[in-house]
Amino acid sequence: MTALLFRKKRPRNTPTDPPGPKDAAGPAESAGPDEAVADAPSEPLDLRLDEQDDSPVMRLTPDYTMERLDELAEMERQLGPGHPDVLRARNNCATLLAAWSVAAPPGDTRMHDRAISLLEVNLAHQEASLGPDHRDTLTTCQMIGQTHRTAGRPERAIPYLERALEGRRRLAGGEDTDTLTSREELSDACATAGLTDRAIALLEETVAAGGPLLPPGGDTVRNRKVKLFDAYDKAGRRAEAIALCKEIISDRERFYGPHHRDVYVWVDNLAHLHHDARDLDAAIACYERAIAGLEQIHGPDSKAISYRYHNLAIAHLDSGHPDRAIPYLEAALAAREHSLGPDHVKTLDSLVALINGLDQAGRIPEAVEATERLVAALLRLGGPDHPKLPEIRGYLEELRRLLP
After folding, report:
1. pLDDT at 175 over 60
2. Which residues contact 360 (CB under 8 A, 6 or more apart)?
């Protein structure tokens, strides 16, 4: 019979959310790079936060910030706008305002704009007195680009970040840590601007150039590889994602040993990639390795292990072996009943998957019993008017007609 219910595979999970842009909706339209921000509200900037203890800027107070701005104005009057001490004070004030921008309401870029205006003044003085390729000049370019990007204006950030990257490359070479940081920042801005191929190419260069310089187990290299993996995955570049995933697994095996949780999590990620590519034998082997290791860490009844049982079962179903899938479907259901309760939506998802597996395996009496359990659960949750009941009851009647 044709199943009325559908089965689904959970999306891939990485050990932590990869750093980098997550601007799914894209930034709001902003002025072009040559247009002044002339229509910003003219009222004074409000540096107050409703909950001072919850400030995302580590208890940075409005009074402290305003005092630093007053000190800057006094130093400008006494020393002149281009004095080195004034440049440092102006840079510090820009940093404070950029920090406060985290607490601004969505879409309010006044803090960003005020910080950028201070940095632009510094940039003009540094270009005149230090030269366009001086380290301080390039750092200011980098800061302006970063601030435009965090304000949701990647197209205005890119020219500054390009200039910082080229200058640092000329100054210190392509493998200098500052050069690597500039290249990564430019990649992030390109990704936010929708320039996916360029963002990936820049990130590939960053990972490759940092390899000989940085330890393979260090946070910087690991985070950049995770970011590149995420970029490959989002761009649908599965072959590159699989190759990099294997490299990440090897790195973690060398750094942590073969039985560390991160190793098993990335083996599970590799299983997803193989599953999506319909390489089911490779997917099953990776799922089995991940499950064997994570069972030792989390136990067989945890939420962390339940969806991996489910995914392995789906791979067996997709390969035409429902009998091999059923033990894992039963294990996933038992783990979710234990960790989430019998009526949780994810528990019922596992029950639905088990019904499909039993149906495909021709184990009709067991499928009938499992479907009756599902009907009872829906009645508990929504009563006789639950919107899914008619569909499930119709499916149950079809199953019963197949009973001997």
Report:
1. yes
2. 3, 317, 322
